[in-house]
Amino acid sequence: MEQCACVERELDKVLYRFVMYGHLSEESLDELLRYVSEVRRHLASSGLKDGDLTGIVYSSMSQCCKNIKESLQRLASSHKDIHGSVSKVGKAIDRNFDAEISAVVADNVWELQERQKYLSETIVEHLYRQGMLNVAEDLCKESGVAIDISMKQPFLELNRILEALKMRDLHPALEWAITNRQRLLDHNSTLEFRLHRLYFISLLSGGMKNQAEALQYARHFQPFATQHQRDIQILMGSLVYLRIGIENSPYRHLLENTNWSDICTIFTRDACALLGLSVESPLSVSFSSGCMALPVLMNIRQVIEQRQCTGVWSHKDELPIEIDLGKKCWYHSVFSCPILRQQTTETNPPMKLICGHVISRDALNKLINTGKLKCPYCPMEQNPSDAKQIFF
Ligand SMILES: [Zn+2]
Questions:
Q1: I need a surface site. Which of 123, 198, 239, 307 has the fewest CB within 10 A?
Q2: Which Pfam families does this UniProt record tie to the protein (predicted)?
């Protein structure tokens, strides 16, 4: 972070100089314009004809040209001064950020055409997620990446609904939730109820004039009566205070603004789950992990080189450090073998025995005795080949 702050300081200096230069040039040009108009007015009032530039007129004209020239030179030289600060930013970047990462990255990572295609697709997908559709289209056109329309469609819909939610328009989201009601319920999602609840609250905030409509709308809660009984009771209870305004009642917490940001988060999470998409963009997750891992990896590499203990870390596709991006980025369940007390890997995967106990394949192989396996836990005797590999 210190490196970023350092570059930012240099950038601030450039920005400050730019602003100051803007003021200076505006002031000088205004002054110059005033001066030129003055000279012009003076010439016009003295009733001179064309080609009659003699004496005092001639000297005031040449003074005018001299002034213009001087002002422009002054502006040009202060503009030149900014160049120095701009180049300092470049130097600060070079000094603080090591662009040479080949020591920690496999050289042939992007050699395969297929991988380059994946990268381009991931970037395009990220842009779709962010709602930057035009940028994504341009990138596709320029890079020649062909994106299937079926990949684009869900993002278009997601963005349209999210945009509406941000403008506090619940209709598109409600429509979507009602269409996908069963699938949402299968995912244990409370999205539809929360949308109805928010719609009801927005009616409440309108005061007495919405009373009849709010009562009418309450029938939407009926399918959720058993699961959200308490919430519905609170909503109905608040109706009593409609006359004095919900904001003056014990129910004022219903009007909190966080309801709206929460509903956006819940909608994104549940809609992504339904569409089989990850909530976080794969590109931003990779980027964040890269930002965390690279400095550490480069330090490790440096230490290894300094101490001349090469061979400790030779495989560049192996990650010798842990990257923690928080709980929301835990994608895979991890299984540790209870026998070997080791995390399972692709070469030593978890195996389920027919009794239901799970151990790693290496442990299983070690436990085989004369072609039979005795479960170390229950202890059921079984055929080792009956064990099935488990995929998390
Ligand atoms: Zn067992």
A1: 307
A2: CTLH (PF10607), zf-RING_UBOX (PF13445)
